[in-house]
Amino acid sequence: MTLPADYSTWITLAPAHELDTIKAQILAHIGDLGSVASKNLLVELAARRRELAADRRRAIEDPDFGLADDEEAAYGG
To answer: DSSP alpha helices (H): ranges in the chain?
Structure first.
């Protein structure tokens, strides 16, 4: 059985394309996780989606967003 803490770690580290899979897993295991834990994980998942969306918006607005110093130097930044 996957524990809520495992899902929480998975959510934190997951790229955007994996979030739907995580949501399906949570919904499929509501009985095992419990309704309160499932709700909390879904809230955390929604927050992660918002965070990733904000990062994408920042990346569009600022092409240097997310580049490390060595990458900036490589691209003439």
So the answer is: 4-13, 19-28, 30-33, 35-61, 69-74
State the Cα–Cα distance between residues 12 and 9, nearest whole angstrom: 5
Ranges of the chain whose pLDDT falls below 70: 1, 65-77
**Entry pTM:** 0.74
Question: How many angstroms separate the CA atoms of 53 and 45, rounded?
Answer: 12
Q: What residue type is assigned to position 26 of the chain? A: I
Q: Closest Cα to residue 38, out of 21, 22, 26?
A: 26
Name residues whose C-beta falls within 8 Å of residue 10's C-beta, 6 or more positions apart in sequence.
18, 22
